[in-house]
Amino acid sequence: MTAELVRGQNHPLLEVRLEIRVSAGAPVVAAATLCDESGRIHGVERVAHPGAPTLPGLEVSRQAATDHRLAVDLDAVAESVHRVSVLLALPTGVGGPVAFGSLAAPSVAVTGLDGSEVARFTLTGLGPESAVVALELYRRQGAWKVRAVGQGYAGGLAALLADQGLAQAQQLASGINEAVAQGLARSVPAPPPRTADADRSRRAAASALGPDQGGSPYGGQSTQGPAGPYPGPQPSHGAADAVAGHPTGPADPAATTQPGTTAASGTGGPVDYSHPRRRNTAPPPPPAAPPAEPGRPARPVAGDATGWSMEERLYNQVWGMFEDLARTTAAYRSAVDFADTRRERELDEVLSDPRSRIGGQGDAARETAHAKHAQLVDQARQVLDRDLAQLVAEAEVVEPALPPAFARWDNPVWHAYRVPMEMPMALRLGDLRLPESDRLRIPMLIRLPLERGLWIDSGRTGSPDGSFLDSHELRRLALDSAVAHTARLLAVHPADEFTVHVVDPDGSGASALAPLVRSGVLAAPPAVGSAGVTDVLTRLTQHVDLVQMAVRGGAADSLPPGFDTAQQLLVVNDFPHGFDDRAVTQLRYLADEGPSVGVHLMMVADREDAAGYGPLLDPLWRGLMRLTPVPDDHLADPWIGHAWTYEPALVPPGSQVLQQVLTQVAAARRAWRG
């Protein structure tokens, strides 16, 4: 039975291997300190944080997130440690909330190996505090207890660490915030909450389009209903429920298949979409689609995902699969790590006893340790394979049902493409995979409009396949990738709602940019030379200034006649060539201020080429989402922080789909202009 704690209350701990689960209303930093009897920290090496997430007996998350799982093994902490304090802090410099008082009260739960809650504490009553000691595990007379603390600090993480006696509190707090900023820069952003206003605007647009041009990805009328909260990524199922750091238990058949169904497609039964541990919150699934007409295939469905339209359900289904794969892989890796640690400890015990090192007794003990290790790893792999089978079957049904904005370039849906009448929810920028599940690709969907710019890295990358390309080939591939992303952005927006500008200072990208130029979808020919760079940057900077002034002055509807109110995209090739200091300053301004008023940036650049600017451009690189033209494991998920291999969304060799799509976009733009 769970003990609901209040401030100052304690509760005995009967287990030493525990998990601490944190849930908050916004991304928070989770850290932990190892303290002495008086609650003092003896050095930065006693603090587990995103920059140094692992200490003996303790592991914390590597990035800020709304949900955390901290693994604790109290038997593994040093004898000098008498308190383990769990800290929560709001990250600084990332545009999020600055005080816990503006958020829903966070909660912290202590669970056992089987996931059952031992104690829970909800941190109510917080106001201007931006850091808090949530609870502490403390040693008393040889036994461990948990105490609810809830001590907040308006001075932030630095004030909290200083109060625990750490001399380098300010430096460590700065380092933690820097590690969090870097983690956010490489993390795939989780979908933001969907507001009622956004729902209303999408429904109004859909109703104005008529029955043949609604929001459904199949060309039918949108099935959106009343505005409601938008569900974020769903929690995982199966192996993902294993306690971090410990092996999973027996597989639960209900988590994968139901009687009469199968977890793999093509084996004689329908795919089972039931995910008992995925939340199905409002809005509810729409009614089942009517039966298909005779002679026509049935309309694919999006499993048990929620949403008012098929597009939204498919989007939620993909994000649910993404989180499931992240968490089930985390459970598998934790189980393997636990098995490794247990085997090493048992082998150390054998070697530490002189009697067991001689004769058959030592050999038998070693064989037993290895057998236990193999058994634990095999159990964990079975659970992982069970979940992967379900996710693969799910992907085989969901992938063909995706609308153009979510689909790969080789999806047949592009053959029936037509210029949309409204902007979709999201855009596919590539695929993501993990080494444990190489056959399963998760679509990387990013919400629209873009919240931050894109950086196509033309420098050398750590490609997982070990391939090496020269710098010239990488630059060519990077620009090809940028063209494919630009074409997709043009294809998913209405003809009058997206304008593209290109800056190519030395003209080196003329060949790769030819599809955009020939089709006539650009606002103007690519700008060349320093004068061209200056002209484009000046016009877009003035565009941002004018829109900001209009919005702040409450006159957003009073922009000058002929003002282009469409979303703007600036594609910059081979930065920083052709840029002087003033142009660099303008580019940084566009990256920082542009997205809020519909001006977005896509840079094709090698960071080493701009090394002469030093740390001046560090905020620019961190503010852009880094993509690569070749597979590279540089992106992280927003839940666990796995290093995912990103595969760019490129047009298949020899395919004419890109030119066909751009031709339709150009024709629609000409028709709109009259």
Q: Biggest sheet, in brief? A: 12 strands, mixed
How many E-type strands?
Answer: 21
How much of the polypeptide forms β-strand, as a percent range?
Answer: 15-25%
Give the number of helices: 11
Q: Which stretches are low in confidence, meaning pLDDT under 50 for 5 or more residues running?
A: 194-290, 296-300
Structural class: alpha+beta
**Overall radius of gyration:** 27 Å
Helix content: 25-40%
Mean pLDDT: 81
Indicate the overall shape. Answer: globular
Distance between the amino and carboxyl termini? 70 Å
Briefly characterize the structure.
The chain is of the alpha+beta class and 674 residues long. A hairpin with a 5-residue loop joins β9 and β10.
What report would you give on this structure?
This protein is α+β, with helices and mostly antiparallel strands and 674 residues long. It is 32% helix and 20% strand. The strands form three sheets. Strands 1, 2, 3, 4, 5, 6, 7, 8, 9, 10, 11 and 12 form a twelve-stranded mixed beta sheet that branches. β11 (131-140) and β12 form a beta hairpin. It is globular and about 85 Å long. The chain starts with a strand and ends with a helix.
Itemize the secondary structure elements and their pairings.
Layout: E1 3-5, E2 10-12, E3 17-35, E4 47-48, E5 54-55, E6 58-59, E7 65-73, E8 83-89, E9 107-111, E10 117-122, E11 131-140, E12 143-153, H1 156-163, H2 169-186, H3 196-209, H4 310-352, H5 360-401, E13 426-433, E14 442-447, E15 454-457, H6 471-492, E16 498-503, H7 510-519, H8 529-552, E17 567-575, H9 581-593, E18 599-605, H10 618-623, E19 625-627, E20 632-636, E21 643-648, H11 657-673
Parallel strand pairs: 1-10, 15-18, 15-19, 16-17, 17-18
Antiparallel strand pairs: 2-12, 3-4, 3-7, 3-8, 3-9, 5-6, 6-7, 8-11, 9-10, 11-12, 13-14, 13-21, 20-21
